């Protein structure tokens, strides 16, 4: 794992690396479905999110639906699988955006990280954090740091003895420390989540 050698230069981080053989990133082709699943899973435990996603697939005979199939599914039907009113609308928003603007993985792979974030956060219901997870776990980008993720913040507080009282200084500290991890900040985030045992990895 080439990233481990680089991250090991950080003495405190090195201890986290010793507990795991290493992680690999996957790339996914169906970005629309990944984004819909991400929205469904927000603020839910992994177990509950998995159940809802399986119910979602059962609406389409267990297969990943097309964007048009999602749009053709009435909102009450989506609510019946356990989605909130807001989430049903957001899922439709994603499918509509994918049809009208395009969300093909080849198109997104040509964009820089911040371009992908700017592009996909045009969709109502899709925030920066959601796109950062997509960059990591669907597009396989190696250098993403999700600064607003609570799990990452809490892990860094624990490891680097940071204080959250002064928000501006806290954010500056997070960036200062994470800059050393570049160009492998995604792997650093994954190790931090596992250290806190609250990984969002799908």
From TrEMBL:
Xref: Pfam families: HhH-GPD
Q: Does the keyword Flavoprotein apply?
A: no
Catalytic activity of the protein: Hydrolysis of alkylated DNA, releasing 3-methyladenine, 3-methylguanine, 7-methylguanine and 7-methyladenine
Assigned protein family: Belongs to the alkylbase DNA glycosidase AlkA family.
Instruction: Spell out the CDD domains in the cross-references.
Output: ENDO3c (cd00056)
The answer to keyword Iron applying to this record is no
**Gene3D superfamilies hit by this protein:** 1.10.1670.40, Hypothetical protein, domain 2
Q: Which GO terms describe its molecular function?
A: alkylated DNA binding; DNA-3-methyladenine glycosylase activity; DNA-7-methylguanine glycosylase activity
Record-linked PANTHER family: DNA-3-METHYLADENINE GLYCOSYLASE
An example of a Gene Ontology cellular component annotation for this protein is: protein-DNA complex
Query: Where does the record place the HhH-GPD domain?
Result: 40-197
Q: What name does UniProt use for this protein?
A: DNA-3-methyladenine glycosylase II
UniProt keywords (A-Z) are: DNA damage, DNA repair
Broad enzyme group: hydrolase
């Amino acid at each position: 794992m080439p990233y481990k050698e680089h991250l090991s230069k950080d003495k405190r981080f090195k201890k986290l690396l010793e507990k795991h053989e290493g992680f690999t990133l996957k790339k996914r082709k169906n970005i629309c479905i990944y984004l819909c699943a991400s929205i469904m899973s927000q603020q839910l435990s992994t177990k509950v999110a998995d159940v809802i996603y399986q119910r979602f697939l059962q609406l389409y005979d267990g297969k990943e639906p097309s964007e048009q199939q999602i749009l053709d599914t009435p909102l009450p039907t989506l609510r019946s699988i356990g989605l909130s009113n807001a989430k049903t609308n957001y899922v439709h928003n994603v499918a509509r955006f994918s049809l009208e603007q395009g969300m093909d993985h080849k198109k997104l792979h040509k964009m820089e990280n911040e371009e992908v974030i700017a592009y996909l956060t045009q969709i109502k219901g899709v925030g920066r954090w959601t796109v950062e997870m997509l960059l990591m776990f669907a597009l396989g980008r190696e250098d993403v740091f999700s600064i607003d993720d609570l799990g990452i913040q809490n892990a860094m507080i624990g490891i680097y003895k940071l204080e959250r009282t002064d928000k501006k200084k806290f954010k500056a500290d997070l960036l200062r420390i994470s800059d050393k991890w570049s160009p492998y900040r995604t792997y650093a985030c994954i190790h931090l989540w596992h250290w806190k045992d609250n990984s969002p990895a799908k």
